[in-house]
Each structure stands twice: as structure tokens, then as C-alpha cells.
Amino acid sequence: MFSSKSPPKEDDNVITNVPPDNMRNNNIYDDDLHVPCPPHTTERRLTARIDYHIVPFLIVLYLLAFLDRVNIANARSFGLEADLSLGGVEYNTALTIFFVPYVIFEIPSNILLKRFSPRIWLSICCLGFGVVSVCQGLVRSYGGLLATRFFLGVFECGMFPGCFYLLGMWYRRGEAQKRYSLFFGSTSLAGAFGGLLASAIGEMDGMRFYRGWRWIFIIEGSLTFLVGVVFLFTFPSFPEQATWLAEDERAYVRARLQADQGRNAAERKITLTDVANVMRDAKIWIGGLMYFGLIVPAYGYAYFSPAIITTYHYGAIQTQLHSVPPWAVAFGFAMVVAVLSDWARHRFLFAIGPICLAIAGFAILLAVHDDTDLQYAALFLVCMGTYSAMPVIVCWFNMNLGGHHRRAIGTAWQIGFGNIGGIIATYSFLSTDAPYYRKGYAISISFICLSAASCVLYAFVLWRENRRREKSVHDVGLTDYEKTELGDLNPEFRYML
């Protein structure tokens, strides 16, 4: 973090008049970064307003996106494979093709998001994947399923990095983890809600001559489209575009973020040169590996947990209902980890701890095949571990990137590269390996270990860089423009471990 002893220099966008010490505990000044708050409000009230205007929208958006992405696993339990005559690895291929555009278009999507604003771009994406999800429920062939899954990936590819990018432009590093985990927890809520909803929609089997699996896609896709229409007029944007803030409040938000992360160059377009410069940084590649290693077990669980639970001899409805509790517990555990991480202002140990939990869960599943209760309990460990560690890793990496251009590119790279793991996950759990899925569990453990090793390496690189900057000359004569362009490479910047 930037030193509080050197507040930002005065310019047209920043409040810099620091009040005397005897005013620092009243409503005029209550920010721990030595940034004065407007006299008519407080930091706590303003942060609460930001939460109210930002977080609920992102939670709903990603809940719907994740639900439309993984509901194919619920549809599979209600006869999708039989009706479309899928055989061999065709179901796995349908899962895989979703990730092709998801990997390719992450960085272009974040560039377009900055150009058109989050409200316009993310709402259009929401409308798009709602329509495609409905079409998924109307397909009559394997080719139709592949086409809809591909275009679902096209429209959904901007959701995750775009939402994380937007969060990073509103919150300081020390307060971001709770918001990141609450947003990311929408995946757990989607998993729980999807199981409950699928069990209910499954009862519609045969209504108007449509099988239950078709109704899952049609109803959930229609809901997404309607929400997208509302978001087109109400979805939040960057602080510079927030009309619900007064001018002095916008200036305060910019000032506190600048004191924490440096100037962000919000007004400058992102260029191909920016992309090339960011990708020269080794930390960017390590960040991608951290996320990549967890995506394999995470999507392995999301796509195949109903199939795994089916091997415990439950019917279609009971399988959906039994898939709910692990997701619900994972959400609660992720929020506990996030609160503790923000309180400690530390990320590394709060990433490694849940990773170890997930390894333990997969180890039990790999070794135990005759104790249903223990196997089901292991699913809790897997879900809790992976879906608690992932938001910590993304927040840790994202909030250590300074400036709009480095954060937009770096976040999109981490998510885009990481989702290559989704392709691996779709072929890790094959129907021929049922009921034990030894290959899938072994592959998942291997990639979790890769993530853990990458986290250790990333923490070491940050620690070494902070030490180097502490020992170097603090004032190297950089202009404000140069500091803005450098982002987190600015010698005054300190990385959070």
C-alpha cells in the first residue's frame, strides 16, 4: 500500500486537504489512509451505499450466469443424453466447447467493457446468454447442443473478469475480500439453487410435450433474459460514471482508491501495447497458474457432482436435493474465510488453508468406496475448499494490480487462462470411470497441488519485491503520469501478501 505519510498530490480529481489530528476521529475525517471524507457523510455510510449499489447487482448477474452454465449437469439427470442420443464422450465435448470462446475472448471483453461501460456491456451479455440458454432447451440434435454451448461461452466470457474488474475499481485492498467472496459465493448459491430448482422443474416432465430437462433450460434462460432487460437501465458502472454519488463523494472515492492503489488512468483507452507490456510481467503468469490449478477441481465438481451423487444410489430428484447442502455450506465457509482475511489484511494463508481442505476431500473420495456417508462428507470438503480458495486467489491477484489498464488485462488473463482448466475438467470424469472416478479424483488432486505451489511462488515473489522496494530510494523523481502508467510497478506501491 502507498505510504500514508505521502498523500496524493493535488489535482482536479482528488481531495487532498488533510485536517489536523484533532479532527481525525469525527465525521469529516475517518479514513485510515489519511483521506478526508466529505463533511455530510462518513466512510462507513459511503461504503455501505457503494455496497448497496454494486454488490447485489453483481451477485444476481453471476448467479444467473453460473446457473445457466452448469444446469446442463442437472438436465443430464432428467434424460438429456437419451433424448439427444448422446454416446461416448459427446456429453463431455458439449461441456468442452463452452470454454473455447470463454478462453479466447476474456481480454477483448474487458477492453470492450471499459469502452462501453459495465452497464451496457454486461447487460448485453446477460441478455445474450439468457436467449441462448432458452435455445438450449429447444435443440433436437447433438449439433444443436454444441452450437448453443459455444454461443453460451461467447456471451458469458465477460461476466466473471468483468465483475471482478468492476469490484476492484470501487474497493480498497483491505476491504475487498468480503465483497469478492460474497460475489464469488453466488456460484455456491447457484449450485444450491440450481439443485432445488431442477428438482422442482423436473416434476414438469411431459408438460406441453416437453421433457423436464428442456424446461430447466427454458425457465432459467427466460429468467436471465428478463433480469438482463432490467440491468440495461439499472446496472452500476465505474466510480467516474456513478450518478448516484455527489461530486465530492466521487472525488473522495477516487482519492481513497488512489491512496491505496495509485492513480488508475481511467480516462485512457487500453491499447495492444498495454497488453504486451502487462504480459511481460512474470507475476501475471503466476496468477494465471494459481487460478488454473483450481478451475479443474471446481468445474469437475460443478459439472459432475450430480453424477457422483447418483453412484450413491439416489433417484433423480433425491440426487438434486443431495447436491444442495455442500454448496450451501461452502458459501458460509467462504464468507468466514473472507471476513478473517480482510481482518488480518492477509491473503496467502487464507488461500492455502482451503486448498488443503479440498485435497483432503479428494483424497477421501479417491481412497474410500464403501462408506457412502464418508464419501458424501468428502464432497463437502471439496466444495468448501475449492470455492473458498478461488475468490481469495482472484482478489489477491486482482487487487495487487494497479491502474485500469493493468487490472483490466491482468484480471481477464487470469480468468481466461484459468478456464483452460475447464476443458480438462470436462474430460476428467468420464462415464466409463463410474462409479469410482479414480482418474478424475487423481487429476483434481494434481491440479490443486499446482495451484498451491503457484500460490507459494507468488507470495515469495511479492515478499521479495516489497523488500527490494523498501531498501531502494523512495523518491526516484517520477511524474504523476509515469506513476499512473506504471500502476503497481511504481516503486511506491506495496503488494499485499
TrEMBL record:
Residues of the signal peptide: none
Keywords, sorted A to Z: Membrane, Transmembrane, Transmembrane helix, Transport
PROSITE patterns (alphabetical): MFS
Main localization, broad class: membrane
GO molecular function: transmembrane transporter activity
Residue ranges of domain Major facilitator superfamily (MFS) profile in the record: 54-469
Pfam families associated with the record: MFS_1
Keyword Transmembrane helix: yes
Domain of life: Eukaryota
GO cellular component, as recorded: plasma membrane
Transmembrane segments: 54-73, 93-113, 120-139, 145-168, 180-201, 213-235, 284-304, 324-341, 348-368, 374-397, 409-429, 441-463
Database matches in InterPro entries: MFS, MFS_dom, MFS_trans_sf
Localization, UniProt: Membrane
Protein topology in the membrane: Multi-pass membrane protein
Location of region: Disordered: 1-23
Keyword Protein biosynthesis: no
The protein's name in its UniProt record: Major facilitator superfamily domain-containing protein
Organism this protein belongs to: Diplogelasinospora grovesii
Lineage: Eukaryota, Fungi, Dikarya, Ascomycota, Pezizomycotina
